[in-house]
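Researcher: Structure prediction, please.
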Amino acid sequence: MARFQRGKPKSSNRKKKPRIHEQAKCRFCRLKTAEVDYKDIATLSKLTTQQGKMFSRKRSGNCARHQRSTMHALKRARFMGLMPYVG
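Model: Predicted structure follows.
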C-alpha cells in the first residue's frame, strides 16, 4: 500500500507570522475604574455587537469583576432607554 501525505508539505524557508500580544489587564483595571457607569454609552457600545449582544470576556478583554459590572451597567442602560435591547 502506498502512503499518502495529508496537508501541505512543510518547507523550511517559510516565515512565521508575527503574533499580536493582547493587553495584560482589562481596560477598566488600567484606568483604575471601580465600577462601570451605565451613563457612559460610548464605552458600553464598544463592548456590544451590532445586534446589541455583549462581547464575551475573552473578546472584550475584561476581567471577571469588570465584566459583571459591565453586564449590570448594560442592563441599567437598556432599562433606562439609553441602549437598545436589539440592534
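Model: The mean pLDDT is 87.
Researcher: Thanks, that helps.
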